[in-house]
Amino acid sequence: MSAEPLRGAKVVVTGVTGQVGEPVACALAKENEVYGAARFRDDAARQRLEAAGVHCVAIDLATGDVGGLPADADHVLNFAVTKTNDWDVDLLANSGGLAWLMEHHREARSFLHCSTTGVYKPMGHHVFSETDPLGDNHGVWPFLRTYSICKIAAEATARWAAQRFELPTTIARLSVPYGDRGGWPAIHLEMMINGSDVPVHVDAPSIYHPLHEDDIIGMVPGLLGAASVPATIVNWGGDEAASIEEWCSYLSKLTGVPVSFAPTTETIDSVDIDLTKMHKVVGKTTVSWKDGMKRMVQARHPELLSD
Q1: Which of 25, 149, 217, 290 gets the highest tally of CB atoms within 10 A of its CB?
Q2: In this predicted model, what pLDDT tens digit does every residue of 125-172 receive, in sequence order?
């Protein structure tokens, strides 16, 4: 079921300079008092957010420096993630920082923690439900060796804090977010433009559930409404499963840019997900992946579109 849009609420959005956090915060700021939290090393991002009506607050989750955020926020959305590849830094920021954040906002009406479907143990073409085994999905990528484990640790923290502080919480395991600001399909398009091969797993096809930013924004109220103690855990992705092979081939058709694939075991496996619970909690998505990716190309490389 869908939920009514948020209006007149005090909302905190962390990771607000990221691909997902920025459009969510800007959309919510139209009818809410929104506080966007990040380290703000990018002045341009801060200016964009402030122009959209977002109150920007510098925080540091690794040190627990969250005191500048309003403790009386109605809703908190955590999209922050630290990916330095240093185990000490990343565990401290992603797990410990989340504990600080949830304690600071223990009086909130709801808390949304954005996790990832990358927490699932690789199992080939298994369709993952929320109760399936967890494991090190991203460890195969040297540049993201801490990612999956830190996301699992953060989920454990969110579960504990939800009960410790009686803070209604939703843990949403996000598949592949994308939109005008980019995403994994946009990275693949840039690789194609540069003439680079696109890595795919040897156990083809590499299936995911790309989720357009419009649906991410539209589903936030429902995810907050589903928050509970113990925490609600739900897969979060687009209704249409699509493989890397499919979307890159479609991007090639749209743009005329050729694509070549490089099958390998040194990339993450397929992560197909069961969306039964998501449909019960927040309903179905509205943007088909083909329409969304055409919009993405229009926003990022309009010169490549022939129509």
Answers
A1: 25
A2: 999 999 999 999 988 999 999 999 999 999 999 999 999 999 999 999
Least confident of 97-111, 130-144, 162-176, 247-261: 130-144
Alpha-carbon separation of residue 176 from 2, 48, 300 (angstroms): 21, 24, 18
Q: How is residue 62 written in tokens?
A: 């690794």
pLDDT at 1 over 50: no
At residue 204, the pLDDT reads 96
SS (HEC) of the chain: CCCCCCCCCEEEEECCCCCCHHHHHHHHCCCCEEEEEECCCCHHHHHHHHHCCCEEEECECCCCECCCCCCCCCEEEECCCCCCCCHHHHHHHHHHHHHHHHHHCCCCCEEEEEEEHHHECCCCCCEECCCCCECCCHHHCHHHCCHHHHHHHHHHHHHHHHHHCCCCEEEEEECEEEECCEEHHHHHHHHHHCCCCEEEECCCCCEECEEEHHHHHHHHHHHHHCCECCCEEEEECCCCCEEHHHHHHHHHHHHCCCCCEEEECCCCCCCEECCHHHHHHHCCCCCCHHHHHHHHHHHHCHHHCCC
> Where residue 307 falls among pLDDT bands split at 50, 70, 90?
low
Band the pLDDT of 42: cuts 50, 70, 90.
Answer: confident
Average pLDDT across the chain, whole number: 96
Task: Return d(Cα 240, Cα 34) in angstroms, integer.
Answer: 31
Cα Rg of the chain, angstroms: 19
What's the Cα-to-Cα distance from 122 to each of 91, 92, 119, 211, rounded to whole Å?
22, 25, 9, 21
Q: Under the phi-then-psi rule, with left for phi > 0, alpha for psi from -120 to 50, and beta for the rest, what region is 246?
A: alpha
